[in-house]
Design brief:
Elements lengths: L6 E5 L9 H14 L3 E5 L2 H11 L4 E5 L16 H7 L3 E4 L2 H6 L4 H13 L3 E6 L3 H5 L3 H12 L10 E4 L13 H19 L8 E4 L7 H5 L6 E4 L6 H10 L2
Parallel strand pairs: 1-2, 1-8, 2-3, 3-4, 4-5, 5-6, 6-7, 7-8
Helix pairs in contact: 1-2, 1-10, 5-7, 7-8
The protein binds phosphoenolpyruvate.
């Protein structure tokens, strides 16, 4: 059976200044010769337009890390989905656990942002994941399934989107779930997506995120229902990110 192309997304978080564009260029140059995976880089908003110009026509797309649910207005400091698209982004990460925790984003707010993203023509990557306390209490599957049900709006069913399973306790910690745990949650996320949106959503990729590194990428990407990876720290340098991209090929 032909395996679908994996999606490898780099989340630079609040890291990156003009000089960091060199890393994006190095990733683009290396990806041009490697093929095999679909690659997206999500820099801070200040770099989206310049990175999109730099990578235009290459094999690496550019995405945002968040957007406001409204298209415009008196929301000082915020960026709309339309603005991201205008700057050259084609993808946007929404509902990252750092946004849910540090900015108190609820499932309903994430769903409203997803609607804004699709209205602007962006491909949303909707993040879900349990905390360590929730996992230890045996609630991981229930928490993640509820987040999927609450964060995916109706309008998503006919659209291109991805869901990222990111256990909160694995992000930036060097800890990762076992492959069995990843497979178990990804299977549950698939069930929740199809329950929410119907059979048409059966092929939406489910990415794994949380301390993906060159050393563990191949095994994680070969796990059932893992359609790609959302990578934080290891996406900042081409030397770390390229082996992960190559592991997906
Ligand atoms: C993330 O920011 O989504 C992430 C998974 O980070 P890290 O790879 O650094 O754990």
């Amino acid at each position: 059976m032909k395996q679908s192309v994996k999606m490898i997304v780099g989340n630079w978080k609040m890291n990156g200044v003009s000089a960091s564009l060199e890393q994006a260029q190095a990733i683009r140059d290396a990806v041009a010769g490697s093929g095999g995976a679909r690659v997206v880089l999500c820099p801070p908003a200040t770099l989206v337009a310049r990175m999109a110009d730099l990578l235009d026509g290459g094999g690496v797309a550019v995405g945002g890390q968040d957007c406001h649910a409204k298209p415009s207005g008196a929301f000082t400091g915020s960026i709309s989905a339309e603005m991201l698209a205008d700057a050259g982004a084609t993808v946007v990460i929404l509902g990252h656990s750092e946004r849910r925790t540090a900015f108190g984003e609820t499932d309903a707010e994430v769903a409203a942002k997803v609607e804004a993203a699709i209205a602007a023509g962006l491909e949303p990557i909707i993040c879900v994941g349990e905390t360590l306390e929730q996992r230890q209490a045996g609630d991981a599957i229930a928490v993640v399934s509820d987040q999927v049900a609450g964060s995916l709006p109706d309008g998503l069913s006919e659209r291109v989107f991805a869901v990222a399973y990111e256990p909160v306790w694995a992000i930036g910690t060097g800890l990762t779930p076992t492959l069995e745990q990843i497979a178990e949650v990804h299977a549950a996320v698939r069930v929740a997506i199809v329950a929410r949106l119907g059979e048409g959503a059966r092929t939406a990729p489910i990415l794994y995120g949380g301390s993906v590194k060159p050393e563990n990428a191949r095994d994680i990407l070969a796990t059932a229902e893992v359609g790609g990876a959302l990578v934080g720290g290891a996406s900042l340098k081409a030397a770390d990110f390229m082996p992960i991209i190559q592991a997906a090929a």
